[in-house]
Amino acid sequence: MSKKIRSEEMDRLLEGILLLKDKEEAYQFFEDLCTVNEMVSLCQRFSVAAMLRQEKTYLDIAEQTGASTATISRVNRALNYGNDGYDMVLRRLEEAGE
Fold it and tell me: Taxonomically, which superkingdom (predicted)?
């Protein structure tokens, strides 16, 4: 994980997230934690990551998600040079049949 975001506060937030028991609790927590726009942005980035892994074009991704090419590029950079977080979660979702 990047040292830029590692902190006691971040540790506490992540520990709290790991304590959520189900999707309903996650909805409750994230609706309190984030604005609607922040949640939309997070969902959009996750969708972009999945589509990039499916080798969709930037144009197709932009049309289907509404993401800017800058956002798509940022997600692509994370996929190629990041910490493999997107791949880890996408793979686990696939394995779980989601």
Answer: Bacteria
